[in-house]
Design a protein that fits this description.
Helix content is about 75%, strand content about 0%. By secondary structure, the chain is mainly alpha-helical.
Length: about 60
């Protein structure tokens, strides 16, 4: 997830997809990737926009 690369690649799947399976898969992938990060590294990689997108995607997930 260095330099927000993974987040940038996954954002379209979180924001533009109406398919909940795709959104769920993107959220799960971010979760799995974040497990490899240490401490606050994930928070350093995420911008406020990314956090808002993740929260919105999570709340739209049935």
């Amino acid at each position: 997830m260095k330099e927000n690369g993974a987040i940038r690649l996954l954002l379209p799947f979180l924001t533009e997809s109406r398919n909940t399976k795709i959104r769920n898969g993107a959220l799960n992938l971010i979760y799995v990737l974040s497990n490899d990060m240490q401490g606050g590294e994930l928070m350093e990689q995420l911008e406020q926009m990314h956090l808002n997108t993740l929260i919105t995607s999570y709340h739209h997930h049935p």
